[in-house]
Amino acid sequence: MNPPFSLFLKQLEGLTYQLSQPLAPYTTFKIGGPADIIVFAHNETEVLQVLKATHQTQTPLFVLGGGSNLLVSDAGIRGCVLMLKGSLAEITVNDTGHEILVGAGASFPKLTNTALKLGWKNALGFCGTPGQVGGALKMNAGTRLGEIGEVVQEVYAATLDGLKIFQKHHVQFSYRQTSFPENTIITKTRLRCENPSPLDASEFLKSAEELAKKRKATQPKWRSAGSVFKNPTPDFAGRLIEATGLKGLKIGDAEVSTTHANFIVNIKQAKAQDVFDLSQKVRQEVYRKFNILLEYEVKLVGTFINTKTENL
Ligand SMILES: Cc1cc2nc3c(=O)[nH]c(=O)nc-3n(C[C@H](O)[C@H](O)[C@H](O)COP(=O)(O)OP(=O)(O)OC[C@H]3O[C@@H](n4cnc5c(N)ncnc54)[C@H](O)[C@@H]3O)c2cc1C
Q1: N or C: which end of the chain has fewer CB within 10 A?
Q2: pTM for the complete prediction?
Q3: Which of 84, 101, 124 is the C-terminal boundary of a domain?
Q4: How far is Cα 90 from Cα 122, in angstroms, rounded to an integer?
């Protein structure tokens, strides 16, 4: 163990952590090598403690939500992986049903369900998106029916300057992108719906069930991280990939889904490098055919051997 890392461990007094933990179980791909350390923070004070310790010892820090938009490399993640638990996973509704205060570590599907029961129509846009609220905020998750950014009132975060509140106009929410500064760990958020319609809640919940059925029919059953690439407006990544004839293409146990071409699936024991190589092959072929360079929606974390990018 190198000296800064042992120094880092000393600064974690009172916190729960695990050393050398494989990350595959924490990702929806079920792929990913070990983290040097996973620290579990249960409140904002603990998050600040971890942030300061990583900063002072120059230990790299990665915040892991539900792992549903990640490809973690086979070598894993060096440094500290932070996960949010306890009071940072709570969901509280205000008296009028207009506002929800929710921890970044809360389940996003659970939040979606809470919002639908309150009659928040925008929440239909969140249906079917797995992961946690922090990841959803960072990615501005959603669909054409709505994105989380539309209901954000304020975001609470731990930064190197201490705890901060970002009002909604301080953050830009765009297509699968947000403008949170580096070293910002989202801890909770206050969401607001101006015109909830509790009387329509059962209708919304029924629509949510229909959307779930539709997803089941149009999305692969295998392990994945959802759409690999962003849609290059006004086109669709899936359409371009399908038109390039790549559906079903495999490298190792990674496959361009035969159900939805913008998904790469782990059909058995795919390596992260297999998924990466396949994604690069897809980019290369789409670029060759359409002159469009697809941008990753999935976050690549750790080190990959860049074997297939000569022409990109
Ligand atoms: C089957 C399937 C379907 C999907 N469908 C959709 C969809 O319809 N729409 C959509 O938008 N997405 C979809 N996704 C992608 C994914 O679910 C979303 O991007 C989700 O919001 C990611 O949340 P997460 O908690 O899993 O984040 P992670 O994958 O864990 O992390 C994503 C990013 O957020 C950062 N992050 C996580 N928590 C925090 C925090 N507290 N503070 C700061 N940064 C943080 C991470 O560091 C990382 O950079 C789908 C994924 C799957 C597997």
Answers
A1: N
A2: 0.96
A3: 84
A4: 21
